[in-house]
């Protein structure tokens, strides 16, 4: 079974551009699940520059939405996660000035802190995943830390595919890591920069069972939703 998680951070980006309420991330989250998505991802950044605590509060209260909360590896964010109890937590690195999550966690440097955070999440029955760059060393560390899943950062392969460059070496690297992770009983997810083409490529790796996609899905939805919205406006303008 392959699961599709939808990251709706950029719905909040559009909402925040006007400082008002529209579009509503929680409505989008409900709609995405109705349309067949397996889960909703929101990244509550420490500066709340897109998703904010109010969004987390509403979305986590809707039981029909399987929620994956991305947070930085701090005890402050852990406290928030334990308060709102999402179904899943994905721990990610966070840099204030980055446009998006640029790479995976440095598991070696943060091993003891991560062990403590993951342990508390595990005790609360929250499935924990670590966002990592694809390396065997990272998989071993993720297991040692006690995570249930790893999410492999797919930015590198996505960039190669988009630039029409050779991606096969990176594909094999991801495949090797996914197989190794599965052999250690870790669930394997993939995310970052995915579009139709890269997802078609990565779905060939049978060990990857969850794909978390944000920017491309929101962008495509805007492009493909335009027809319906214009039709609705034309109906309003033509009505007597
Ligand atoms: N997975 C994780 C852990 C992320 O942090 C992000 C956002 O960077 C995504 C998936 C989705 O990435 P994108 O918006 O490029 O699809």
Protein described:
This protein is α/β, with parallel strands linked by helices and 240 residues long. It has a single domain, classed as Aldolase class I (TIM Barrel, Alpha-Beta Barrel), CATH 3.20.20. It has ten helices and eight strands. It has helices at 9-18, 25-34, 53-61, 75-84, 111-123, 136-145, 155-162, 168-183, 196-202, 215-238, and strands at 3-7, 39-43, 67-71, 88-91, 127-132, 149-153, 187-191, 208-213. The protein has an eight-stranded parallel barrel, surrounded by seven helices. Strand 3, helix 4 (75-84) and strand 4 (88-91) form a beta-alpha-beta unit. Helix 6 runs parallel beside helix 8 (168-183).
List strands and helices in order, with pairings:
Blueprint: E1 3-7, H1 9-18, H2 25-34, E2 39-43, H3 53-61, E3 67-71, H4 75-84, E4 88-91, H5 111-123, E5 127-132, H6 136-145, E6 149-153, H7 155-162, H8 168-183, E7 187-191, H9 196-202, E8 208-213, H10 215-238
Parallel strand pairs: 1-2, 1-8, 2-3, 3-4, 4-5, 5-6, 6-7, 7-8
Helix pairs in contact: 6-8
Relevant CATH superfamily: Aldolase class I
Instruction: List how many beta strands DSSP finds.
Output: 8
Average pLDDT over all residues: 96
Overall structural domain count: 1
Task: Assign the CATH architecture.
Answer: Alpha-Beta Barrel
Head-to-tail CA distance between termini: 51 Å
- Radius of gyration based on Cα positions: 18 Å
Hey, roughly how much beta strand do the residues contain?
A: 15-25%
């Amino acid at each position: 079974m392959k699961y599709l998680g939808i990251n709706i951070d950029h719905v909040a980006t559009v909402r925040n551009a006007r400082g008002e309420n529209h579009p509503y991330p929680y409505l989008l989250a409900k709609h995405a699940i109705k349309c067949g998505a397996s889960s909703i991802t929101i990244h509550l950044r420490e500066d709340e520059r897109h998703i904010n605590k109010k969004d987390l509060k509403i979305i986590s209260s809707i039981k029909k939405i399987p929620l994956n909360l991305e947070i930085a590896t701090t005890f402050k964010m852990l406290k928030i996660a334990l308060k709102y109890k999402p179904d899943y937590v994905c721990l990610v690195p966070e840099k204030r000035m980055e446009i998006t999550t640029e790479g995976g966690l440095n598991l070696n440097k943060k091993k003891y802190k991560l062990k403590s955070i993951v342990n508390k999440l595990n005790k609360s029955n929250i499935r924990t995943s670590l966002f990592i760059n694809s390396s065997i060393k990272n998989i071993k560390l993720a297991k040692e830390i006690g995570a249930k899943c790893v999410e492999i950062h797919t930015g590198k392969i996505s960039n190669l595919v988009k630039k029409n460059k050779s991606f096969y070496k990176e594909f094999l690297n991801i495949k090797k890591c996914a197989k190794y992770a599965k052999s250690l009983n870790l669930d394997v997810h993939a995310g970052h920069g995915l579009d139709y083409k890269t997802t078609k490529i990565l779905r060939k790796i049978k060990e990857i069972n969850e794909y978390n996609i944000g920017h491309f899905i929101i962008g495509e939805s805007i492009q493909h939703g335009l027809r319906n919205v214009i039709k609705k406006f034309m109906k309003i303008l033509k009505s007597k």
